[in-house]
Automatic annotation (TrEMBL):
Cofactor: pyridoxal 5'-phosphate
Compartments it resides in: Cytoplasm
Keyword S-adenosyl-L-methionine: no
First-tier enzyme category under EC: hydrolase
Gene Ontology CC entries for this record: cytosol; mitochondrion; nucleoplasm
Bilayer-crossing regions: none
UniProt keywords, alphabetically: Acetylation, Cytoplasm, Hydrolase, Pyridine nucleotide biosynthesis, Pyridoxal phosphate
Catalytic reactions on record: L-kynurenine + H2O = anthranilate + L-alanine + H(+); 3-hydroxy-L-kynurenine + H2O = 3-hydroxyanthranilate + L-alanine + H(+)
Taxonomy of the source species: Eukaryota, Metazoa, Chordata, Craniata, Vertebrata
Protein name as it appears in the record: Kynureninase
Any one Pfam family match given in the protein's UniProt record, by short name: KYNU_C
Subunit structure, interactors included: Homodimer.
Length: 469
């Protein structure tokens, strides 16, 4: 989907180690990679939590003044430092002007969402008229499915991956029920092959080819929340549309993480949240995409007054003049207090660029993968060394920055011990530890320190439970 770097991450690590005449796992390698990182200064744009402020911390194990190893941007991104300033500006305007804030100031509240659309275009690879900022992801998914899912007696299925994010699963179930369809027959779920954790693209395409005539909508994650697998969006889109299906994606874990080209790929629709890699804060405003080819053929099924053309919106004559395309899906006025944090983050993305962030991310996550495999990969038969397995695809084209780890020792204990040491990541059932080094604010030295903390946690587990392989 995107060209490979000229040098694979493992080769880069080994080359730097050779230049420094030290082992690849030496701290000097991490420090050299940070020195060469042209994006390293972007970390200063964010507040990095201190370990002393984290609930699970054990102050006997850490220096309380150190920054946390924050590898949980896939759940909640860190706060840009300008957020407070932008919020205070709008609160001050509200306090001083009241209702006049709707039409006055840097961001007139009526058009605040439209004013920052230009900052989203490169992140999702779309035109401004194809993007809308509104609601939350699941609400947007429902609104989009109401328009794109039009079942017939012969084309009535929605195709999705097994263990999709629960909210997506529930949304699809409820959409099927809304149309009076049998969930068992209409919800077509693709599982990985037996004994495998992730999906093979050829298997997905085979199902689409065989059953596509009965599928109305193909709806996949861009990146699977649990495994961290990046699906082949253009291939799935092309295959689905060739069989007459609409193809959409939940980009919650892909937006701001990998390069997207929704317009060029011809994706029919997509939606995303903004509180993960886009760093817009918990419950941040969501986004949606509707390809311009549907501008005059797909309309919202639920309409509100902010889908009405601005020039006549306030005539209040109840004669709808629907904005063509994505903007017509807007129902209510934009929440300025949610626009501010998103703007604060998007202006950082604009400076960094997705292309440069993705380039760093490939090396940063590749370095993490190299260190884990070097220290805790499957060892020679007969040894009792604990094993850390990476279920996320090893091919850099098939993943973003997240690696999902499983352990041969108790994962709950490992997770707790990492938390005590100031490592912020998350555990997801059944047995995955999600670790996501984010290129905007994480460093190679963060990865090095994480490996040390992981080793300490595993050593503690061995002392408590004995050698478990």
């Amino acid at each position: 989907m995107e060209p490979l770097p000229l040098e694979l991450p493992a080769d880069t690590v080994q080359r730097v180690a050779s230049e420094l005449r030290c082992p690849p796992t030496d701290e000097r390698v991490a420090l050299r990679l940070d020195e060469e990182d042209k994006l390293r200064h972007f970390k200063e744009y964010f507040y990095i939590p201190k370990v002393q402020d984290l609930p699970p911390i054990d102050l006997s194990l850490v220096n309380k003044d150190e920054s946390a190893i924050y590898f949980s941007g896939n759940s909640l991104g860190l706060q840009p430092k300008t957020v407070q300033t932008y919020l205070e500006e709008e609160l001050d305007k509200w306090a001083k002007m009241g209702v006049f804030g709707h039409s006055i100031g840097k961001w007139p509240w009526i058009t605040a969402d439209e004013n920052i659309l230009g900052l989203m275009t490169d992140i999702v690879g779309a035109n401004e008229k194809e993007i809308v900022l509104m609601n939350a992801l699941s609400v947007n998914l429902h609104l989009l499915l109401l328009s794109f899912f039009k079942p017939t007696p012969t084309r009535y299925k929605i195709l999705l991956e097994a263990k999709a994010f629960p909210s997506d699963h529930y949304a699809i179930e409820s959409q099927l029920q809304l149309h009076g369809l049998d969930i068992e027959k209409s919800m077509r779920i693709i599982n990985p092959r037996e004994g495998e954790e992730t999906w093979r693209t050829e298997d997905i395409l085979e199902v689409i080819e065989k059953e596509g005539d009965s599928i109305a909508v193909v709806l996949f994650s861009g990146i699977h929340f649990y495994t961290g697998q990046l699906f082949n969006i253009p291939a799935i889109t092309k295959a689905g549309q060739a069989k007459g299906c609409f193809v959409g994606f939940d980009l919650a874990h892909a937006v701001g993480n990998v390069e997207l080209h929704l317009h060029d790929w011809g994706v029919d629709f997509a939606c995303w949240c903004s509180y993960k890699y886009l760093n817009a804060g918990a419950g941040g405003i969501g986004g949606a995409f509707v390809h311009e080819k549907h501008t005059h053929t797909i309309k919202p099924q639920l309409v509100g007054w902010f889908g009405h053309e601005l020039s006549t919106r306030f005539k209040m004559d109840n004669k709808l003049q629907l904005i063509p395309g994505a903007s017509g899906f807007r129902i209510s006025n934009p929440p300025i207090l949610l626009i501010c944090p998103l703007y604060a983050s998007l202006e950082i993305f604009k400076k960094a660029t997705m292309k440069a962030l993705r380039r760093k991310s490939i090396l940063l996550t590749g370095y993490l993968e190299y260190m884990i495999k070097h220290c805790y990969g499957k060892d020679k038969e007969g040894t009792k060394k604990p094993v850390v397995n990476i279920i996320t695809p090893s091919c850099i084209e098939d993943r973003g920055c997240q690696l999902t780890l499983t352990f041969s020792c108790p994962i709950d204990y490992i997770f707790q011990e990492l938390g005590k040491r100031g490592v912020v990541c998350d555990k997801r059932d059944p047995n995955g530890l999600r670790v996501a080094p984010v290129p905007l604010y994480n460093s190679f030295h963060d990865v090095y320190k994480f490996i040390n903390h992981l080793s300490s946690a595993i050593d503690s587990a061995e002392r408590k439970y004995g050698s478990v392989v």
